Amino acid sequence: MIIVKPVGGLASQLHKYSVGKALAYKHGVPLKLDLSWFEDRPDTDTPWEYVIDRFDIKAEEASVSEVKKLKPCYFYVKIKRLVEKFFGIEIPFKSYSNKSFLSIDEFFSLPSNLYLEGEFTGFKYIESIKDIILEEIKPKNNISSLQKKYLECLIDSMPVASIHFRRGDFISNKTAANFHCVCSSSYYHTAIMDLEARIGKYKLMVFSDDLDWVKESFNFPDNDSVTYVEGLQDFEEFQLMSMCAHNIISNSGFSWFSAWLNPYDNIIISPKKWVHDKNINQIILDDLDSSNVVFIENE
């Protein structure tokens, strides 16, 4: 049995689920979810709700006893982290792993009975089960009439690319703002021109958690070719972005993950700077790098 702990917003939850799914699939064991973060989330974190049950995911909630069986108590985990941080000495637990940014070999060497924590960016951990993820990350219910309306916009003689502006808690939440960057307007203008140079004329479908700001503050080269997406739930936007021909993303897992799930031969325009920490930022870029990804300066 593999247990993972989804945290954060929709894309973070889906990525944690997918990482756990890849390890569980490799071992041929069940995947279970520890949902305790949503019941007792830290005050400094953005108050996201558990939402991935809107998709056809295949995992049950782990019981308290199952979590306790695999995960050491908080005191031992804290001691482990302190020792590893200040002394560089790894303290292994047989049924628990909280090491971030594991190599592929390290990841797939993890045991089959495990509580898995840590940070896992990009697609390298989950690429082997992409077909499974594509099947499961589909809404359980029929699409809404409004979503259908936007999907009809994609049936056009001219390609439609998504463009995602992430602001929200990257600005309003002090903890998030100290860690994440915010893409500049110049990044988006450069990305729009770069994509046109590659594919010719196209239309834009605009997604944002602060659409009012985009409408008031960002000038598109051709407003007649722009469609603002509003009134949809986040999981509907996530699916809609993945159906666009190409994707201009922000430094956000929400737009990156949907672009990676895109079934078409898409170009992904991505910022070069995702977070302020240079070492972590380089890890993220390395984990996102692919033949269809174009990195552009965003400051």
TrEMBL record:
Transmembrane parts of this sequence: none
GO molecular function, one term: galactoside 2-alpha-L-fucosyltransferase activity
GO terms under biological process: carbohydrate metabolic process
Protein name as it appears in the record: Glycosyl transferase family 11
InterPro entries (alphabetical): Glyco_trans_11
Keyword annotations from UniProtKB, A to Z: Glycosyltransferase, Transferase
Taxonomic source organism: Marinomonas polaris DSM 16579
Organism lineage: Bacteria, Pseudomonadati, Pseudomonadota, Gammaproteobacteria, Oceanospirillales
GO annotations of cellular component type: membrane
